[in-house]
Amino acid sequence: MTDIRSTGGVPESADESATDSEQQRDLLARLQDAEPTDAGIDELFGALASPRRRHVAAYVDERGDATLDDLAEHVAECESPDRPSSNSVKLALHHADIPRLVDADLLAYGDDNHRVERGDRLAAVASPE
Q: What is the pLDDT along the chain (129 residues), one digit of tens a residue?
């Protein structure tokens, strides 16, 4: 199994801040250390293949929880120069990205209150608050 820390884990692009990239690499390294099987690693990497989902997971990991609106604003700010409106980001998060992270047990999502929290896998490796 390749250790993502040796490859940097997350490809950096011009629109990612150094801090955000660093948080994402740290999160991926902690998740890899906690996952004992290649199948589990494949599932995690599949869920985190999208830069948008990595932004969401790192944001929730750092804060413990977030509203859908907060996440949409954060992701819209990260996706530049042609940022989609936070409204279109919000729809994509709600219908595609968050469900994928929930399926991988990285996030828990309350449809009734639109609040996103750490899922079991993310809580197990949570960064200190």
A: 334 333 333 334 444 466 778 988 888 888 888 877 777 888 888 999 999 999 999 999 999 999 999 999 999 999 875 766 889 999 999 999 999 999 999 999 998 899 999 999 998 888 665
The dihedrals phi and psi of 118, each to the nearest 5 degrees, come to -65, 135
CATH code: domain 17-124 is 1.10.10
Residue spans per domain, the chain: 17-124
Select from 83, 85, 109, 84 the least CA-distant residue to 96: 109
